[in-house]
Amino acid sequence: MALRCNFRQQVVSLCSSLCVLVVLFAPVRAHAQVAGATLTGTITDPSGAVIPNAQVSIRNAATDVVRVVQADNDGLYTAPNLVPATYEVTVSVPGFVTQKLPDITLTVGAEQVLCFNLRGNTGRNTLIGPGLENLDFSIVKNNHIKRISESFNIQFRAAFFNILNRANFNVPDLGSGNDNIFDGSGTVSPTAGLLTHVTTDPREIQFALKVVW
User: Fold this and answer.
1) Looking at the domain assignment, is residue 186 inside a domain?
2) How far is CA 124 from the centre of its chain?
3) What predicted TM-score, i.e. pTM, was given to this entire model?
4) pLDDT, tens digit, for every residue of 51-108?
5) Do 22 and 44 fall into the same domain?
6) Are 18 and 90 members of one domain?
7) Phi-psi region for residue 172, left (φ > 0), alpha (ψ -120 to 50) or beta?
8) 21: alpha, beta or left, given left = phi > 0 and alpha = psi -120 to 50?
9) Contact 57/99 with Cβ under 8 angstroms?
10) CB 90 within 8 A of CB 56
11) E strands along the chain, which residues?
12) Measured distance CA(12)–CA(33) in Å, rounded
């Protein structure tokens, strides 16, 4: 009987100790879960296609500590457990212009969404059209009829616009929406570089008769 009572006392003592530990550590663990902030978002190109494997650098403006994360294949990045502070976020990926956003303030427990839309880094005058050549021609024939008056004149005009009927093509298309050479995976758009439009009208001939008196 004494052995059974002793065993019961030990069990009660052990349970009491476990309860004390739960009470002591539960607030600490709960506080640790909300101490940091989370920054997340997606990286896309101008057409809305996701850009995978983009590098996202998150710099603490106060301490200059930089944290680097990488977007996944769906263009999604996540940076958890960031110290509440003001950050400068920079996104870079080969083939696109690096984008930088300063003054991103994160507070305790914040889950902020910050998305980026990157444009290509192709320079000016990279795509050059085939040039423009246009020749216009006009003929004027005056017919003075002095029997009517000294100034009476019937003038015949013939005008030829783009007389050689040359097709002057516009600059090559840049792809989908005429503004993207590459899609989200870095593949060249199938319509990029194609000549599909002209800048001048086809040959046009006009005749006119003018009476002056």
Assistant:
1) yes
2) 17
3) 0.48
4) 999 999 999 999 999 999 999 999 999 999 999 999 999 999 988 889 999 999 999 9
5) no
6) no
7) beta
8) alpha
9) no
10) yes
11) 37-44, 55-60, 66-70, 76-82, 85-92, 99-106, 111-113, 116-117, 137-144, 153-161, 204-212
12) 32
